[in-house]
What does this fold into?
Amino acid sequence: MLKPSPDRPSLSDHRTRALPISVIDDLAVSNAPFANGSDAVIWQRDVPAQVTAWLNALSVDALPQDRVILKSMDVSACLNEQFEHKGIALNPALAWLSQDVTRLAKWVEETVNSSFLRMRMEVVTDDACSKFHIDNVVARLICTYRGPGTQLNTASAPDEACLSLPTGDPVLLKGKRWPQSSDSPLRHRSPAIAGTGLTRWLVVLEGCDRAEWMPEYDRTYRDLNLPESN
It folds into this structure.
């Protein structure tokens, strides 16, 4: 049986209270994640210690990197195949990971009411995306499974006042194209890690209509038939 990681950081501090965010501990209560006016929702939860240890022990070359258009029901199979291509067979930690990303994909799918998702698996060892920004999407979910988590802040606050998410806590963020949204003060960034020897591995999920599909960057999973764009 997989056990939770001990001594996880808490999000219940003054930095959390100063941001336009919500913190949940049960995904079942998040059917309308932004209903209370929050600009981001963080799922505070425990990732099994065995999963964290397994991911941290993998070499950088064994961590998948890809950008795939798919449906939530295909996420688990896609992830398992990604690791299989790296020579890693299905194991309890990978099974948990695949099921977890599937849960997150369904959350995004329901939130943005999209038929298709873009799933990115990213390996980060530098300072990419280390400036605070808002994404030009409807909504985006980021979950860092290895290494330091995403950082949140407001546009007017000093950088050192940012909130660093615990590894394994997903954050669902409103983007610039969220319907009827006013200008949000919330910004996010990747932590600067160049020269530290740290490696981040994260999964990014967002709704993706046919008009947003970029064949020069995206690939479709298996024989996914995308509708023709208007």
Remarks:
- The chain has one domain: 45-217.
